[in-house]
Amino acid sequence: MRIIGGERAGRSFDSRGFTGRPTTNMAKQALFNILANRCRFEDLRVLDLFAGTGAIGFEFLSRGSSVVLVESNRKAALELARNAREMEFSRAEVRTQRVEAFIAKATSAFDLIFADPPYDLPLLREIPLMVANANLLEAGGLLIVEHRQRSAMAVPPDEERQYGDSVFSFYTFPLRSLSK
Question: 39 vs 83, 106, 111, 163, CA distance in Å?
């Protein structure tokens, strides 16, 4: 895996211990091009749910954000922590726990949340509601859920972008569909 932008652009990192589907470089590049027009990365507080290889979280860290990476797979989380140390990402915090447990106990809000759950995860469609109910995002905060095209979300997104079989659904908080 490789970081595509920011201070650590071009740095490679291992993804041993991860058995899932990482976000492609093409989709990552497109996502960060979109975000560059919407936010300043420096000092952004980011939550990376289902962090996997850390590919998305490391991109934010490379651009100056602070990131909490939540991953339930112990081997993958250990690799995340090792990679963050090796790349000297002092603003990274790796949490080894299930996303549902993290959301239930979270006490602080974030500016941006990225969620890339396994595509067959039953609670995938509920993620926007879970985040809203837990008050995990600051007002005006952005939630991005990566999923496959045929996944119907419980709450319609403000915007969707498709790259291959991957779709990014964008939600701005508070959720408009909940405030009507």
Answer: 26, 23, 10, 21
Q: Is the pLDDT of residue 17 over 70?
A: no
> Do 173 and 140 meet the contact criterion of CB atoms below 8 Å apart?
yes
CB neighbour list of residue 114: distance below 8 Å, 6 or more residues apart: 46, 47, 48, 49, 56, 57, 60, 144, 146
What residues have CB less than 8 Å from 105, skipping those under 6 apart?
A: none
In the chain, the number of structural domains is: 1
Mean pLDDT of the 14-40 span = 82
Mean of pLDDT over the chain: 90
Contacts of 49 (CB under 8 A, 6+ apart): 70, 99, 102, 103, 113, 114, 115, 116, 117, 127
The whole-angstrom separation of Cα 180 and Cα 171 is: 15
- Please report whether residue 7 resides in a domain: no
pTM, two decimals, is 0.92
Structural domain boundaries, residue 86: 25-178
Assigned domain for 13 exists: no
User: How does strand 45-49 pair with strand 166-172?
Assistant: unpaired
Query: Residue 17 falls within a domain, yes or no?
Result: no
Q: Check pLDDT > 70 for residue 166.
A: yes
Q: Is residue 1 part of a domain?
A: no
